[in-house]
Design a protein that fits this description.
Largest sheet: 8 strands, parallel, barrel
Strand content: 5-15%
Strand order of the largest sheet: 1-2-3-4-5-7-11-12
Shape: globular
Number of helices: 15
Number of domains: 1
Radius of gyration: 21 Å
Mean pLDDT: 95
Distance between the termini: 5 Å
Oligomer: single chain
Order of helices and strands: EHHHEHHEHHEHHEEHHHEEEEHEHEEEH
């Protein structure tokens, strides 16, 4: 154990994070409709398949496997799993509501009561143990019908459909849930619009226009959710959520420094600039002009965005990136949807994601300096090959070291004056990977005996990191 002199706030929210589509399973139970994730195959070629312009939004059981259909069966095991979270001492649990459990087709006028009741039960189970639910309203789980019939977020009708959905869950749960986020990793649209916007790039000449128009509609929808939340209870906190990848220039060449600034600003800051500062940033004018983008902005849109900004920034941080004006033949690396130049000063995970805890400290300082709103690290973790040893033990010291280094980086950021609300490690229990659809890529403190083919007992076994994280929480991060 390592003692930190730096202090986390007394009310710091320690916990873990998951997404409905990656662990619930029961994809046709309880009145649930199909979501976009239900038609996305698992396996290492997942991203290649969904980036294909001919992706058809159909299930092909003869060609592919669909691990999300069963997940880890949290739909039936949530009581046992939440009890394990409570044993670790979680102060909060970040989870998402599956949109298609509440509105199976997405465009209905009345919600599915059976789906609403399920989340009543989940939140009640959390609160029984004093665990605060932190809820993502939309986490890569758009009802499939909204993607196929309407074309996803490029269609303004989705603002209306999302408002109905968000109003429904906010009204139903606001007395149980204090912390909300609107869209998971909203800036992932720049790389895979299917996940967050519900469509694939069909035409390279129009796709950027569609993505930015989709983002505009999401900004409106997010502000409407903030407005509704504050009307229900002025103390509700409704935040935005982005991927943040701290980035470095390849070298001190001014051309590379400028390239890094431009790319970082667009990826790391654009969505937060609109959602937190409440207006489109000045630098976007140059981008829109260069790419011939003309947004359909209707009367009242900009006022809505201005008047109802996000209360805090939730963000995922897994790795940093290196940028250059002309990457050319420089060696590349990949991770969390990002592709960048390999950093020779960093080691990488089993899946090639470079490990950079100092980058998290930089991210926290950059974000707080820029926005001056509370921050929440809602995803951070290590996907690795875990081995179930004799006696059902998993000695994941590599995960402990990864998290120790990142928690220490957070502590140093807090010492620098950063207002940090909490930390929810991804994913606190093994689940289906979003990027590859694998179970083999394990993040959790809890091992789930299910393999990539969906075979196994489904039994849960605490890993070594389970007991380590329990001590971290008990000591409020003083013993890591």
């Amino acid at each position: 154990m390592q003692n930190l002199q730096k202090k986390f706030p007394e009310n710091f929210l320690w916990g873990g994070a998951t997404a409905a589509n990656q662990l619930e399973g029961a994809y046709k139970e309880g009145g649930k409709g199909l979501s976009i994730m239900d038609v996305i195959p698992g396996g290492k070629k997942r991203l290649e398949i969904i980036r294909n312009p001919d992706f058809d939004f159909e299930i092909h059981d003869d060609k592919y496997t669909y691990p999300n259909h069963e997940g880890i069966d949290f739909y039936h095991t949530y009581k046992e799993d939440i009890a394990l979270f409570a044993e670790m001492g979680f102060k909060c649990y970040r989870l998402s509501i599956a949109w298609s459990r509440i509105f199976p087709q997405g465009d209905e006028t009345e919600p599915n009561e059976e789906g609403l009741k399920f989340y009543d039960n989940v939140f009640d189970e959390c609160l029984k143990y004093g665990i605060e639910p932190v809820v993502t309203i939309s986490h890569y789980e758009m009802p499939l019908n909204l993607a196929v019939k309407y074309g996803g977020w490029k269609n303004r009708k989705l603002v209306e459909f999302f408002k109905r959905y968000a109003d429904t869950v906010l009204e139903r749960y606001y007395k149980k849930v204090k912390y909300w986020m609107t869209f998971n990793e909203i800036n992932s649209a720049f790389f895979i619009p299917l996940f967050s916007q519900g469509f694939v790039r069909k035409n390279t000449e129009t796709s950027e226009q569609e993505i930015y128009q989709g983002l505009h509609h999401q900004f409106l929808a997010s502000s409407l959710a903030v407005k509704k939340g504050h009307e229900l209870d002025k103390n509700l906190r409704v935040g935005c959520m982005i991927i943040y990848g701290t980035s470095y220039s390849y070298d001190s060449n001014p051309a590379n420094q400028w390239a890094n600034l431009e790319e970082s600003r667009m990826f790391n800051n654009f969505c937060a600039d609109v959602q937190v500062r409440g207006k489109y940033p000045s630098y976007i004018k140059k981008v829109f002009k260069a790419e011939n983008i003309k947004l359909d902005i209707q009367p009242g849109d900009l006022e809505l965005i201005r008047d109802y900004p996000a209360d805090y920034i939730g963000f995922s941080y897994y790795m940093s990136a290196v940028r250059a004006a002309d990457p050319g033949n420089l060696e590349k690396t990949n991770g969390n949807l990002l592709s960048a130049i390999k950093n020779p000063f960093l080691k990488a995970s089993d899946w090639g994601w470079e490990i950079d805890p100092t980058g998290l400290k930089i991210a926290l300082n950059e974000l707080y300096d820029r926005y001056q709103v509370p921050l929440f690290v809602v995803e951070n973790g290590l996907g690795a090959h875990d081995i179930l040893e004799e006696g059902n033990k998993i000695n994941d010291d590599y995960r402990i070291q990864y998290m120790r280094d990142h928690i220490e980086a957070m502590a140093e950021a807090v010492e620098s004056g950063v207002d940090l609300m909490g930390y929810t490690s991804w994913g606190c229990i093994d689940l289906v990977s979003a990027s590859t659809g694998e179970m083999a890529k394990r993040y959790g403190f809890i091992y789930v005996d299910i393999d990539d083919e969906g075979k196994g007992t489904g039994k849960r076994f605490p890993k070594k990191s389970f007991y380590w994280y329990k001590k971290v929480i008990e000591t409020n991060g003083e013993e890591i």
